[in-house]
Amino acid sequence: MHRIVANAGDPGFFGLVESLVAKRPDIDLRGQDEKQALGLMGVRDMSWRLGVLLLLAPVVVGVAMLPRLLHGLDFGEERVSITSLSRGRIPGSRNVVITGARARLSESVEVTTTRTQGARGAAESTRTLVPLVPPAWDRNQPVHALLEISDMSSSEEAVVERATKFRGVVRDILWEGLSGEDRAYLTTEAGLKLADDVRLVEYRANPRYDLLVFLGGTGVSVLVVLAMGTGLWLRKRRRGSAY
């Protein structure tokens, strides 16, 4: 197979085409639409598969961000004591105010994540996992709630240490919750005894932000699919008119 590149309207190219067709009339694809031309060349049209993949992209993004949507649509809030949580109570809303609790900062663990951002270098974010326990708790008792605080400042640390009630969002939808890696570190390195149903509570999280993240992520994916689909349609239309 040989590929020939020529300028549009080049008389030399048209002369070459006429000479080739004169010798092999069966290879003349002019006047055929794209489907007929591909059939004559023995090539299968795979563009429909790309179309299916494009349509599935927003669905995949939406499923991946489903916990964000469910949190964003949770407009309730419930006050619950740390004692009742320890006894297995399931709040009616994942937006909770946990009362009668103390944050054991002396038993907390910091988790630092480094992300590479191209030319801008690396960016670090820190999560602090703080056991949230009754005032009379000791290390021989299991921890039923962990407070997750992002990039905690010294002033925020002082507030958390004095507080007895904590507002946050329980992260336990689908694959949310304490990761296996964090659980292993807390139990083996920090020496904490974690309950099987330990709840991860994101401190002062705003569920409306979750909804914005979901809408933004799915919206961008839809726009990308529309742009790519339009580009493919225009390309196919130009190719079809060329035969």
Brief account:
This protein is an alpha+beta fold. 43% of the residues lie in helices and 22% in strands. It is elongated and about 95 Å long.
Using only C-alpha atoms, the radius of gyration works out to 30 Å
> Structural class, from helix and strand content?
alpha+beta
Overall geometry: elongated
Poorly predicted ranges: none
Q: Which CATH class of the largest domain is shown?
A: Mainly Beta
Give the strand content. 15-25%
CATH architecture of the largest domain: Beta Barrel
CATH domain topology of the largest domain: OB fold (Dihydrolipoamide Acetyltransferase, E2P)
Commentary on this structure:
It is built from eight helices and eight strands. The protein has 243 residues and is an alpha+beta fold. The chain folds into two domains: 26-64 and 214-242; 76-205, OB fold (Dihydrolipoamide Acetyltransferase, E2P), CATH 2.40.50. Strands 1, 2, 3, 4, 5, 6, 7 and 8 form an eight-stranded mixed sheet that branches. Strand 1, helix 5 and strand 2 (95-99) form a beta-alpha-beta unit. The model has no long low-confidence stretch (mean pLDDT 86).
